[in-house]
Specification:
There is one protein chain. The chain is mainly β and 371 residues long. It is 9% helix and 32% strand. It is globular. The model is unreliable at 1-27 and 358-371 (pLDDT under 50). It catalyses: Eliminative cleavage of (1->4)-alpha-D-galacturonan to give oligosaccharides with 4-deoxy-alpha-D-galact-4-enuronosyl groups at their non-reducing ends. This is Pectate lyase. Residues 1-28 form the signal peptide.
């Protein structure tokens, strides 16, 4: 069962929102607290232009096919790629890995690997997970495409440490990760998380947790994020629903880059999305994130997202409400905001769609702090 999302349109307005100063460290950087980043795309504007082109092309194809009663094109380039390819996605699940856009487009997930089916929603032993559980599949080495045998709610006793080259594919079932610890992507790459409900996540830790078949280690107290990305790259989160977590719904820090967050629904939360560890952590200067076709919905307060350093393409999202502000930034980020819809709250003191936590400007180039 696929998550339902609002109709997405491509708007002609092109707005570049830029913010500024406050200043960072990571595995992706060769020097401590250096802004040099091995994995950052050298021309992020070209990635943003490619997304624009893909959206425009999909929109045109959908309009041309509108008279065909059997056509399934929506104008969304991601969904049209995997759901309208002429084959049944159930027989060709791994096609999804070819459908990413933006900075996370190279996330292959478990493509080329076997299908692993989660049959057991339990999480009794985070050090020695049982075959059939989500944790057992997530920690394996090599590519693995994880699916689910039926609807299930998984309450994790400790953080789910996902190993590289994994897809968590909830299509065909209603899969909830809820009421316990949630997902951590720490120093891993090539992860796809698709069509999963993640909510009511809590802090966990002070326990041993396995991260691979050959390693487990002591985990300190976690923040309680829905999805925590820590020094990760080539990450794609698509068609997920996130709400009610102890800290952020999605946080990406410590030099993470090559991330796309798309087609997802965020609701009922305060600090929605933090992108960047701190203002003085230089390696986050190489953070590059695409945020596309999402709905920022009911009872959200702020950080949709909150950006530090880096380059952030926020395109064709639906911001239906907020209590403080929608997009915030500091430490000289570039926020390329295009084709978004903002519906401001009734509160006259909370109508800011964007908030600069230092200096803010609205021009089509990176800002420099005024004298």
């Amino acid at each position: 069962m696929l998550l339902l999302h609002p109709q997405h349109c491509f708007f002609s307005a092109h707005i570049l929102l830029l913010f500024l100063p406050f200043a960072l460290f990571t595995a992706a950087s060769p020097f401590p607290n250096s802004s040099v980043h091995f994995y950052a795309h050298p021309d992020p504007d070209s990635v943003a232009r490619e997304v624009q082109s893909q959206v425009a092309s999909s929109h045109r194809r959908a309009l041309l096919a509108a008279g065909d009663k059997d056509q399934c094109l929506t104008g969304n380039p991601i969904d049209d790629c995997w759901n309208c390819s002429g084959t049944d996605w159930r027989q060709d699940r791994q096609r999804l890995a070819d459908c990413g856009i933006g900075f996370g487009r190279d996330a292959m997930g478990g493509k080329g690997g076997p299908i692993y089916v989660v049959t057991d929603p339990s999480d009794r032993d985070p050090v020695n997970p049982a075959p059939g559980t989500l944790r057992y599949g997530a920690i394996q080495e090599g590519p693995l495409w994880i699916t689910f045998s039926r609807d299930m709610t998984i309450r994790l006793n400790e953080e789910l440490m996902v190993n590289s080259f994994k897809t968590i594919d909830g299509r065909g079932a209603a899969v909830h990760i809820a009421g316990g610890a949630c997902i951590t992507l720490q120093y891993v790459s090539n992860i796809i998380i698709h069509n999963v409900h993640i909510h009511d996540c809590v802090s966990a830790g002070e326990a041993n947790v396995r991260s691979s078949p050959t390693h487990y280690g002591w985990r300190t107290r976690s923040d309680g994020d829905g999805i925590s990305i820590y020094g990760g790259r080539k990450i794609w989160v698509d068609h997920c629903a996130l709400s009610h977590c102890a800290d952020g719904l999605i946080d990406a820090i410590m030099g993470s880059t090559g991330i796309t967050i798309s087609n997802s629904h965020f609701s009922h939360h305060d600090d929605v999305m933090l992108l960047g560890h701190s203002d003085d952590y230089l390696p986050d200067s190489g953070m590059q994130v695409t945020i596309a076709f999402n709905r920022f919905g009911e009872e959200l307060v702020q950080r949709m997202p909150r950006c530090r350093r880096g380059y952030f393409h926020v395109v064709n999202n639906d911001f239906t409400s907020w209590e403080m502000y929608a997009i915030g930034g500091s430490a000289n980020p570039t926020v390329n905001s295009q084709g978004n819809r903002y519906i401001a709250p009734a509160n006259p003191n909370a109508k800011e769609a964007s908030k600069a936590h230092s200096f803010f400007c609205l021009i089509k180039r990176k800002c420099t702090q005024p004298a």
